[in-house]
Write a structure and sequence with these properties.
Helix content: 25-40%
CATH architecture of the largest domain: Alpha-Beta Barrel
Number of strands: 21
CATH class of the largest domain: Alpha Beta
Number of helices: 12
CATH topology of the largest domain: TIM Barrel
């Protein structure tokens, strides 16, 4: 790690492989205990190498967020892939190309017009999930609209080349839940509604697919879903910590940022590490407070606990502003490195595009 730190000249995303593998094993064991198949979402790590760590645990199916990401992981040996984004008909050639090469895809639909277009354009049989909006209000058919859900399900079921796999939802609204009991309540309500839809449709073998890190992390039991699709759990982040999905010790990534200026008069460090490295996502607090990350000290075997009383208070394109307790700036100087635990791991990985483990070895990413 010392040699690694000496070699860092620019913002660098560091991955603690031991923590990452521990997170993977814990989620795999939890899904198994709940009689669910783990179909992890790979949009968080975006790495062929880290994908191989799942293979060692006999994970054989994955989730991605785009056709291009599906192609990347197909090249890394994955051939059972759900693209958890409403199908984009303009990419039908790429989809057909993957299917022609033996990749088993599952696509998401939520409208009859899309199903018609897909049925006409698809050249090989492909799996299809009906996308359900269970409360996140982003995409999908509202879960209360049973009539529309059943109509679309029958339309897919009757298609020659579309294989109805079941009903899929992403409970993104768990990120706004304020308690474990609230997460449990909305999870139980969703699974019961989806069970009722499956019963009305009359095909017991169809799947109920569920995906979000908070519920899969904080609930001991999630009974009734056939597969889980969490993604963020592989690294976790400050947002998940504040929700209660993980401990600080579970967070497996930190960005090493060079300190470029020390402002003792306002107890601040200016670091090379801005929104182009972390994204501009923040956690909002009272009175306009915004948290863009937590500083940590980089050590031989990783990083320290949080620097008490310090936080990333602002980001611009390349700049980051770290607020320190009064007098602490004496411990830092320009040219030092400091670590930052990010607010959102998925966006940080996507922004950085590559990672290094604590031995200094590069981990390439999809982007």
């Amino acid at each position: 790690m010392t040699l690694l730190l000496d070699s860092i000249k620019q913002p660098t995303l560091l991955v603690d492989a031991a923590k990452t593998k521990k997170n993977i094993i814990r989620m795999m064991d939890k899904a198994t205990a709940n009689k669910a198949v783990l179909r992890p979402h790979f949009k968080t790590h975006q790495s062929g190498l880290i994908g191989n760590w799942f293979k060692t645990l006999d994970v054989d199916r994955i989730t991605v967020s785009s056709v291009e990401m599906a192609a990347y992981f197909a090249q890394h040996g994955w051939n059972d892939i759900t693209i958890a984004f409403p199908v984009n008909i303009r990419e039908i050639r790429k989809i057909n190309h993957l299917l022609a090469h033996g990749i088993r895809l599952n696509l998401l639909v939520e409208a009859q017009d899309t199903v018609k277009l897909l049925s006409d354009a698809i050249e090989h049989e492909t799996g299809v999930f009906i996308k359900i909006d269970s409360g996140n209000k982003r995409s999908g058919i509202p879960i209360q609209d049973t009539k529309c859900i059943l109509q679309l399900s029958h339309q897919v079921f009757k298609s020659d080349k579309l294989l109805l796999k079941g009903w899929l939802t992403h409970a993104g609204h768990t990120y706004k839940a304020t308690s474990v009991s609230a997460i449990r309540s909305l999870t139980e309500e969703t699974v019961q509604r989806l069970k009722d839809i499956r019963t009305q449709f009359g095909e017991d073998g169809l799947l109920l697919s569920w995906g979000d890190t908070p519920s899969c992390s904080v609930l001991d039991e999630i009974v009734g879903f056939d597969e889980w699709r969490p993604g963020n759990f592989v690294f976790y982040d400050i947002m998940q910590y504040h929700i209660g999905s993980c401990s600080l010790a579970d967070i497996a990534i930190a960005v090493a940022c060079p300190i470029v200026a020390v402002h003792k008069e306002r107890d601040q460090l200016i670091v090379y590490g801005g929104s182009i490295h972390f994204s501009a996502e923040y956690i909002a607090g009272d009175s306009g407070f915004r948290l863009y990350g937590y500083p940590v000290l980089l050590e031989r075997n990783g990083w320290s606990e949080l620097v008490t009383g310090a936080w990333v208070r602002a980001l611009s394109q390349e700049h980051g502003v770290i607020q320190l307790p009064k007098g602490m700036t004496n411990s830092f100087r320009a040219g030092d490195l400091i670590g930052v635990l990010p607010v959102h791991a998925c966006l940080t990985v996507n922004a950085m595009g590559k990672m290094q483990n604590l031995n200094g070895e590069y981990i390439s990413c999809f982007r």
